[in-house]
Task: inverse folding
């Protein structure tokens, strides 16, 4: 089978690496890809925004399955365009991708499905939004632009003064453009966050093992929000009992309601959850694998991903055997460019990747990298996702950071505390310091 992965981040490298291990896959392409996907597959120089270009390539090359990594092409209708040409694709169509493309849409679905989520109100006029705050007691709230805003559209506000500023930024200054035509004001929830990803074919739901991202730039969850500075899987925050509850009270009613609303969901349903004192609540849905969650999740998956994603695209996930997982936990540490998440320099040579990769059960997934003169250089904010399996989470962390230390470029940095959030929950002898 010929497979095309669309995208260029760490998630896409992890998808390509895992799909390529399938005996079903003969050739695998990545459009546009990075230095890592060029080493493990064949890069195609088509950006993920060029829908006609991608469809033409898939037609010309007779691609059997296209796996779409990022949300933007899904929300723009890439899967619809491929399907219209009779080409198979894994991912939601444009209508179903609204679960990520519109917070207003998602809140409506959650309400209809009776899924636990923060209380909210929606607005398209700043005066009305601000006036509604005046009817509430001053305190924390979350203001969210309706549309896609590269992870920056959710503004957690300590008080109403900050919330009014956020409303102004979205509806008056139009900082997020049309993504800010509407906004929601939401109750601020407290707890740990976890990512639950499930593979869905419209009817059957196959949950993947739970993971936890680290969204803030600095250790101890300080500093600005980023795309994600590291993740680990599984997370003991989600017990087996909780997982059953999440499937029953969150995933099943959501998939069912998407069907009754005539927007059936196929692809990855990613629930961003807040684990509150009263139980898990949905903060958001994404409609694709998490980045960097995909890296540790896919590192642990033993089953044939190509077989599963093809079955999902064909609506026959019910025929898939239960997933098999490596018992060992995985930790992914993101190495970033100096300055990220603000501006940073590109084009610096990276050394030591092969050395780190040579370690057993370590994989260096590329994100913002590019080959220049045959050598990898940094080409984005998040540059590498160094991922390791270990006998326990402490061992996985130690091994990931040992691999990180072998890699160098000017200005490289990472968080030092990936996976520490659950240190106290795990019953093994933790090393004094790693
Ligand atoms: P979202 O784009 O909706 O996932 O929001 C991004 C981040 O903002 C989440 O990962 C949370 O850290 C935070 N967040 C979003 N909604 C809430 C909420 N209702 N209460 C507290 N934090 C939130
Ligand atoms: N890691 C968060 C996301 O993929 O949205």
Result:
């Amino acid at each position: 089978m010929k497979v095309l992965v669309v995208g260029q981040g760490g998630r896409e490298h992890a998808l390509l690496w895992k799909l390529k291990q399938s005996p079903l896959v003969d050739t695998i392409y990545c459009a546009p890809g990075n230095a890592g996907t060029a080493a493990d597959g064949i890069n195609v120089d088509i950006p993920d925004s060029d829908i006609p270009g991608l469809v033409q390539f898939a037609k010309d090359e007779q691609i059997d399955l296209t796996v779409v990594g990022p949300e933007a092409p899904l929300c723009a209708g890439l899967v619809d365009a491929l399907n219209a040409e009779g080409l198979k694709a894994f991912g939601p169509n444009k209508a179903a991708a609204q679960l990520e493309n519109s917070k207003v849409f998602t809140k409506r679905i959650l309400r209809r499905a009776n899924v636990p989520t923060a209380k909210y109100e929606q607005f398209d006029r700043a005066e009305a939004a601000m006036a509604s705050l005046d009817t509430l007691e001053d305190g924390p709230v979350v203001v969210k632009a309706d549309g896609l805003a590269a992870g920056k559209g959710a503004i957690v506000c300590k008080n109403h003064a900050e919330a009014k500023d956020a409303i102004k930024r979205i509806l008056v200054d139009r900082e997020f453009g049309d993504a800010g035509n509407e906004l929601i004001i939401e109750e601020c929830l407290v707890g740990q966050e976890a990512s639950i990803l499930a593979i869905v074919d419209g009817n059957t739901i196959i949950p993947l093992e739970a993971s936890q991202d680290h969204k803030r730039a600095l250790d101890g969850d300080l500093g600005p929000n980023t795309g994600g500075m590291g993740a680990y899987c599984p997370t003991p925050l989600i017990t087996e009992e909780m997982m059953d509850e999440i499937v029953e009270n969150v995933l099943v009613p959501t998939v069912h309601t998407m069907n009754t609303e005539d927007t059936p969901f196929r692809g990855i349903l990613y629930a961003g959850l807040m684990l509150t004192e009263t139980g898990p609540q949905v903060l958001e849905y994404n409609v694709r694998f998490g980045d960097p969650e995909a890296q540790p999740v896919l590192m642990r998956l033993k089953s044939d991903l190509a077989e599963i994603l093809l079955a999902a695209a064909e609506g026959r996930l019910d025929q898939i055997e239960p997933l098999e997982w490596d018992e060992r936990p995985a930790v992914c540490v993101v190495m970033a460019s100096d300055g990220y998440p603000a501006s940073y320099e590109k084009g610096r040579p990276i050394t030591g990747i092969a050395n780190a990769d040579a370690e057993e059960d370590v994989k260096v997934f590329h994100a913002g990298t590019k080959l220049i003169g045959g050598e990898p250089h940094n080409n984005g904010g998040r540059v590498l996702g160094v991922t390791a399996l270990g006998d326990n989470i402490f061992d996985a962390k130690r091994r990931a950071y040992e691999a990180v230390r072998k890699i160098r470029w000017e200005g490289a940095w990472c968080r030092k505390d990936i996976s520490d959030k659950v240190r106290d929950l795990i019953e093994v002898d933790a090393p004094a310091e790693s």
Remarks:
- Residues 213, 228, 286, 290-291, 293 surround glycine (ligand 2) (CB under 6 Å).
- The mean pLDDT is 95.
- Residues 240-260 form the longest helix (21 residues).
